[in-house]
Amino acid sequence: MEIPDILASAAERLTEDESLRSNLDDKQASALLNHTLRWLENRLKQAADAAAVNPEQEIAQAVQAMHSINVTMKSPQPPVLQEMLEKMMPLTASAVAAARVADTATQQKASILRRMVGRLRSIWRRATTGDSTDV
User: Fold this and answer.
1) CB of 53 within 8 A of CB of 99?
2) How far apart are alpha carbons 55 and 62 in whole angstroms?
């Protein structure tokens, strides 16, 4: 099984299991899932022979780590999520750099979309009302 297929299977399994994120808000749950998938991808890529890796065992380790983090986050004084992620599922420097690039790209796309929506509003307003002021 190829790494992208393993990651797709893992993503499906991890998102279906509500007990892995029940104590987290949406932002934290998304951060946990993204970090877990990067961690899993990193482990699979580090394996000398990907065919020798047991994907189910790797996914089970990811599930166990996510469950532990979720339970810990229920405490009255929960730790910082990012610190827990780095402790329980450390990433290599290259994986961290790739995550930063992905985050930057997402922010750039969001900025472009906001500008496009603003421009479309302006065009729509002019077309429907004859108003020439921009939004």
Assistant:
1) no
2) 11
**Whole-angstrom Cα distance, residue 84 to residue 73?**
9
For residues 71 and 77, give the distance between their C-alpha atoms in angstroms, rounded to a whole number.
Answer: 12
pTM: 0.63
The reported pLDDT for the residue numbered 101 is 55
Name residue 101's amino acid.
V
Q: Is 89 exposed, middle or buried (0-12, 13-18, 19+ CB in 10 A)?
A: buried
Q: Rounded mean pLDDT of 13-27?
A: 90
CB 19 within 8 A of CB 70: yes
